[in-house]
Write a structure and sequence with these properties.
about 110 residues, mainly alpha, 2 strands, about 10% strand
Length: about 110
């Protein structure tokens, strides 16, 4: 199930400050997460639960893609290695091979 924050970002179609614009709260009930909107401090109307539920699939796709990007970022070469590779053909080939390996290891959803 997608996070409420992701659905809100999709609903508003912009970056959201969750410490100022929209405050979320989670009252755990029997160790089950129950997140909800505590404060809505933006000009757009607050979404209904039905509107948020309609964004479930899209939000899940966004979260899956973000996880792929995070996993790739952990394994990609460091900036210093990329700079060196700019001036050394063998280093560049090694970097390209490593990048392709990481992309195969962490494919985008649906790819």
């Amino acid at each position: 199930m997608a996070q409420l924050s992701t659905k809100i970002k999709l609903y508003l179609n912009r970056t959201v400050d969750f410490e100022k614009d929209v405050l979320l709260k989670d009252d755990m009930v029997d160790r089950v997460s129950n997140p909800y909107i505590k404060e809505w401090n933006v000009a757009e109307p607050q979404p209904t639960q039905e509107q948020l539920d309609a964004l479930e699939s899209q939000a899940s796709d966004v979260e899956a893609l973000n996880e792929v990007y995070a996993n790739r970022k952990k394994e990609y070469p460091k900036i210093q290695d990329l700079v060196v590779a700019l001036y050394d053909t063998d280093d560049k080939a090694a970097i390209d091979a490593k990048r392709a390996e990481i992309k195969l290891k962490h494919p985008k959803p649906g790819a």
